[in-house]
Amino acid sequence: MKKNTLEREIKTTNDGSKTLFINELNENYHSHHGALQEAEHVFIKNGLNLINDYEINILELGFGTGLNVLVTINEYLKTDKNHIINYFTLEKYPINEAEIENLAYFELFDNPELKNIYQKIHQSEWEKSVEITKGFYLHKIQCDFFDLKNIDLPKISLVYYDCFGARVQPDLWEKPLFEMVSNKMNVNGLLTTYSSKGSVRRVLQDLNFKVEKKQGPPGKREMINAIKL
């Protein structure tokens, strides 16, 4: 696939939130059972809310529609905000302005601040750290996931592993990429993903992660949390 050639259309998922559908891959960006429910269950309930560090360095694969960033900021704004989040996110195929406007994820939240924050997330410059709201820094990086080994990052305490499914991109769920991710993480860092594949669990165990199966988001029986030992 050549850069910026993905054909996408917007679809509404079962919880009323929207997602993008890639025609040539026959793949949604999020679960059709509910994009918002999936993001909050996998990456907030079983991710961010389990981290107690003063400074949290998050690595996301990949940025996609920006929903995971928005739910993370929404959760951050509920706290006393006396800590710092540095959010690094990789994306090879950024979405366009029409898609950003039509997805309108800020409408899913009660907090009126999130409209401006949603716009700032998408307008922020790539390859640069931008303070989206006080104490929350977003750094968007346009690259292939396998370029991760060449990217200079602080030690990561939390990984949102949100790649397209193994059915369409199996190489994203094999040892080489997981090893690159592991090399960027702190000891005791947490990797959380919607996947529960046995092959993924075995790869993570081989890379010295303690793997735990958790209840999955709506429509999915299980998901994985993995702690780097």
Automatic annotation (TrEMBL):
Pfam families listed in its UniProt record: Methyltransf_30
InterPro entries: MnmC-like_methylTransf, SAM-dependent_MTases_sf, tRNA_MNMC2
MnmC-like methyltransferase domain residues: 147-228
Key words, A-Z: Methyltransferase, Transferase
GO biological process: one example: methylation
Superkingdom to which the source organism belongs: Bacteria
Gene Ontology terms, MF aspect: oxidoreductase activity, acting on the CH-NH group of donors; tRNA (5-methylaminomethyl-2-thiouridylate)(34)-methyltransferase activity
This protein's name: tRNA 5-methylaminomethyl-2-thiouridine biosynthesis bifunctional protein MnmC
